[in-house]
Structure formats: structure tokens, C-alpha cells
Design brief:
The protein is an alpha+beta fold. The chain has one helix spanning about 95-120, and strands at about 15, 20-25, 30-40, 40-45, 60-65, 70-80, 85-90. The chain has one domain: predicted glycosyltransferase like domains (Thrombin, subunit H, Beta Barrel). Strands 2-3-4-7-6-5 form a 6-stranded antiparallel barrel. It is globular. The two termini are about 25 Å apart.
Length: about 120
């Protein structure tokens, strides 16, 4: 999990990988990239190149993490210099919410196993 002491997010973020595509609903702007981290409320995407997205822009995003495809509507919360964008999920179907919750549970379980392995090796 990625989190610092001064992090005030509602939900923990989990490092993960997966492909993503973001499309602006206001323009024809479209970009592809990789999911860097994921939470129940949003994600950080590392795009394949610099982008033209702006904070507050409404987008539709499709992404696949651990072979699970998801489609969400969101808004750009952070438009970092370079290829990074932070996305807040604003519209998810009930099915999408269930799938995202299951995916987060799976990522949390994987993290827990990784944390337990070094402790077991020291015994």
C-alpha cells in the first residue's frame, strides 16, 4: 500500500499494474497508459506520453488490472507535469463498484502475504 503520514485520503492506495485508456468527454483527447496505483475512490495513471488533460476535466476511463476490465467515469484531480494524472472516480455502476471492491480486497490480500513472508523467513 502507498501511504504517508500526512496522506489524508479516505481510502488506501495499492500499487498495481495494468493498462488504461482515458478519454475526455469535452474534447477528442484520448491517451493510453498504465495504472500506477488504485483505491476505491480513484487511481494514478502513468500515460505513455505527456498529455493535455486539465484538473477538473470529466473523463471516461477503461482499465484492466489483474485481468479484470473496468469502465468508470471520473474527473482529473491532479494533472502532474509529464505523463502522470490522478483520477477520481465519480460514476460507477453497481457491478463496477462490486468488481472494484473485490479487486481492492485481492490487492490487499497480496500485500498482506508479501508482508508476512519476510517475517516468516526470520523465524
Amino acid at each position: 500500500m502507498v501511504q504517508s503520514e500526512d496522506d489524508r485520503r479516505r481510502y488506501g492506495r495499492f500499487r498495481c499494474g495494468g493498462e488504461a485508456e482515458i478519454r475526455s468527454l469535452a474534447s477528442s483527447l484520448c491517451a493510453k497508459g498504465r495504472v500506477a496505483n488504485l483505491s476505491l475512490s480513484g487511481c494514478l495513471i502513468e500515460l505513455n506520453s505527456n498529455h493535455g488533460f486539465h484538473r477538473g476535466e470529466v473523463i471516461e476511463m477503461t482499465f484492466r488490472v489483474r485481468q479484470l476490465p473496468l469502465r468508470v467515469q471520473g474527473s482529473i484531480r491532479q494533472a502532474h507535469s509529464g505523463p502522470l494524472v490522478g483520477v477520481e472516480f465519480t460514476v460507477l455502476t453497481e457491478r463496477g463498484k462490486r468488481q472494484l471492491l473485490e479487486l481492492i480486497k485481492e490487492l490487499a490480500a497480496i500485500l498482506q502475504l508479501r508482508l508476512e513472508r519476510p517475517a516468516q523467513a526470520q523465524r
